[in-house]
Design goal:
The protein is α+β, with helices and mostly antiparallel strands and 118 residues long. It is 22% helix and 31% strand. A hairpin with a 4-residue loop joins β2 and β3.
Length: 118
């Protein structure tokens, strides 16, 4: 019984030490655009007003990277309304485990959205 309890404790410690490795503590810069949690990367050709409308109705802002990966933004108040639906360069800490980012800085880039490759 003691060996079993020890094995469980050691396994738990291994999992707990692996979880922080999924979260990046150093900021990372990425290019993409701000969309909404309802549409994500699916409506890339729509006007920025679509994202603004969905966010105004309660959808959360998300970041869509150049490779079309959708990232939850864990501090949505850091996203200005003027950036919704726009191309941006974002500096953030990344948590790959739950596909989320913590925004440090957002800079507008040219264009309204990335061009769709669909």
């Amino acid at each position: 019984m003691k060996r079993f309890a020890m094995a469980i404790a050691m396994g738990g410690m291994a999992v707990m030490t692996a979880i922080p490795a999924l979260a990046s503590t150093s900021p990372k810069s990425m290019n993409g655009f701000i969309s909404d949690s309802k549409c994500g990367a699916t409506k890339m050709v729509d006007a920025p007003e679509c994202a603004k409308k969905c966010i105004a109705k309660g959808a959360k802002p998300v970041f869509v990277g150049e490779n079309k990966e959708v990232w939850k933004i864990d501090n949505p108040d850091a996203v200005p309304v003027s950036d919704e639906g726009r191309n941006v360069k974002i500096t953030a800490t990344v948590n790959a485990g739950d596909k989320s980012i913590h925004v440090i800085e957002i800079k507008k880039t040219m264009g309204s959205k990335l061009k769709s490759k669909l």
